[in-house]
Amino acid sequence: MTVVAQETVAVPAAPKPRPRASARHQRRVAGGALWIVVGAILLAGVVALNVAVLQLNLRLDDLARQRTNLRDENAGLQSEISSAAANAKIQQAALHGLGVVPADPSQTTYVRIAP
């Protein structure tokens, strides 16, 4: 009996095929993308709201400035009215209460002092 040695040659095994992504994994990816889209929409809404508030604040500042200017103008006008009314009141009080009459301009004389 003869024994013959056989040489064993290792044959490389064929690569295993990659398993396909499961339906569950695909749903998780799709769900994650959906959440990203929802988050982006919410952030865009927050930005739009902040822009609207900023525009309203600018308008309120402008209206406050106009109100201040109008109050200042009203105060000046009231001062003019009160000054005009005060002169008339003084003349009326002098005429009726004290009997003082305005001087006739033709009777006014000026004294010149030599330097």
Could you walk me through the main structural features you see in this protein, from its secondary elements to its overall organization?
With 115 residues, this protein is mostly helical. The protein has a domain at 49-98. The protein is 65% helix and 0% strand. The chain contains one helix and no strands. The radius of gyration is 50 Å and the shape is rod-shaped.
Q: Which stretches are poorly predicted, pLDDT < 50 over at least 5 residues?
A: none
Determine the number of helices (DSSP H or I, runs of at least 4 residues).
1
β-strand percent reads under 5%
Please compute the radius of gyration using only Cα atoms.
50 Å
Overall 3D geometry?
rod-shaped
Cα end-to-end separation? 165 Å
Order of helices and strands: H
Q: Averaged pLDDT, please? A: 85
DSSP summary, beta strand count: 0
Share of residues in helices: 55-70%
Concise overview:
This protein has a domain at 49-98. The protein has one helix spanning 23-97.
Give the helices and strands, then pairings.
Blueprint: H1 23-97
Features:
rod-shaped; 115 residues; mainly alpha
